[in-house]
Amino acid sequence: QVHFVESGGGLVQSGKSLRLSCTGSGFPSGTYIWGWDRQGPGRSREKIGFITTDGHPTYIIDSVRGRFTISRDDATNTAYLQMDSLKPEDTAVYYCGVPALGRGAWGKGTQVTVSS
Question: What is the mean pLDDT of each run of 10 residues along the chain (116 residues)?
Answer without folding.
Answer: 94 98 96 97 97 96 96 97 98 96 92 97
